[in-house]
Amino acid sequence: MKECIFCKIINGELPSYKIFEDEHTLAFLDIGNEADGHTIVIPKTHLTNILDCDEEMVGHVMNAVKSISNHYADHCGYSGVNLLNASGTSAQQSVPHFHFHIIPRKDDDGIHAWPDLKEREKSLEDMYSLLKIQ
Questions:
Q1: How far apart are CA 114 and CA 112, in angstroms?
Q2: Phi/psi class of residue 12: alpha, beta or left (left: φ > 0; alpha: ψ in -120 to 50)?
Q3: 39: how many CB neighbours lie within 10 A of its CB?
Q4: Furthest-apart CA pair in the chain: how many Å?
Q5: Residue 2's pLDDT is what?
Q6: From CA 73, how far away is CA 107, in angstroms rounded?
Q7: Is the full-model pTM beyond 0.70?
Q8: Residues 6+ apart with CB under 8 A from 11
Q9: Which of 38, 60, 99, 101 is catalytic?
Q10: What are phi and psi of 4, to 5 degrees?
Q11: Which pLDDT belongs to residue 34?
Q12: pLDDT at residue 115 above 90?
């Protein structure tokens, strides 16, 4: 997609700090200042979000996420990662290209990456009835 910033990175139209690349995926450092090592992992095919992906592409992206996460833990001094994804505007997806954020973590790093969620409005029983897969 021509106006997609991530597609421009894939096509070399915009610079990036590539961390990992294979046939299906690309990972690069996020240009924001939120956290050291903040990495974005994307499919090289333009897909808006996880709801648009087939299982094979989700698998490619998750394999890259796993490999990069293990590399950070095994070779870069991190002890954990947060994995973040927003799919759809209602989920606050800001770039309409499927992607995962990897936030490398160290003990006592002061990062609070878990969202502050409001209390649920419906009972667990109601949610179970709505959400269960038959």
A1: 6
A2: left
A3: 22
A4: 50
A5: 78
A6: 12
A7: yes
A8: none
A9: 99
A10: -75, 125
A11: 87
A12: no
Q: Is 46 a catalytic residue?
A: no
Q: Which residues does residue 40 pair with via DSSP β-bridges, in sequence order?
A: 28, 101
CATH number of the domain enclosing 87: 3.30.428.10
* Phi then psi dihedrals of residue 29, to 5 deg: -70, 140
The boundaries of the domain holding residue 25 are: 5-131
* pLDDT for residue 1 is more than 80: no
Round to the nearest angstrom and report the end-to-end CA distance of the chain: 37
**Secondary element (H or E) of residue 103:** strand 100-105
d(CA 29, CA 50): 21
3-class secondary-structure state, position 84: strand
pLDDT tens, residue by residue, 39-68: 999 999 999 999 999 999 999 999 999 999
For the chain, the domain total comes to 1
Let me know if 41 is exposed, middle or buried by CB neighbors in 10 A (0-12, 13-18, 19+). buried
